[in-house]
Write a structure and sequence with these properties.
The longest helix is centred in the middle third of the chain and has 21 residues. This protein is of the alpha+beta class. It starts with a strand and ends in a 10-residue tail after the last helix. It has 2 domains: about 45 residues, no CATH class; about 55 residues, no CATH class. It has a 3-stranded antiparallel beta sheet with strand order 1-2-3. Helices cover about 35% and strands about 20% of the residues. Its EC number is 1.1.1.49. GO terms for molecular function: glucose-6-phosphate dehydrogenase activity; NADP binding. Keywords: Carbohydrate metabolism, NADP, Oxidoreductase.
């Protein structure tokens, strides 16, 4: 999944689909679902994040803001994760961008007798 920011806001997702047809073959093909905000909403100008934020502030609309208690609860959740990592001495495993993930992911899935499906 790719989330595109300014100036071409949008989201695209690549998924693996069965090629349509009535044969019994299960040919798979990577397809792309692409949402472009400017094309979908036919707008030449989309307000940037700060433009909208300032406008909502002037209107007294707080929907784009997080309350203090929400922030505190979110940090409790994040802190519980980092504390668990510290106690287990099991920090997130780094890996190279564009790869299938850390080497440890192979061990995690093979211990249950499974394997990754590697498609080109």
């Amino acid at each position: 999944m790719t989330i595109r920011l300014q100036p071409d806001e949008g989201v695209d997702i690549q998924v693996l689909n069965k090629v349509p047809g009535l044969d019994h073959k299960h040919n798979l093909q990577i397809t792309k679902l692409d949402l472009s905000y400017s094309e979908t909403f036919n707008q030449t100008h989309l307000a940037d994040a700060y433009e909208r934020l300032l406008l909502e502030t002037m209107r007294g609309i707080q929907a784009l803001f997080v309350r203090r208690d929400e922030v505190e609860e979110a940090w409790k959740w994040v802190d519980s994760i980092t504390e668990a990592w510290a106690m287990d001495n099991d920090a997130p495993k780094p890996y190279q961008a564009g790869t299938w993930g850390p080497v440890a992911s192979v061990a995690m899935i093979t211990r249950d007798g499974r394997s990754w499906n590697e498609f080109e």
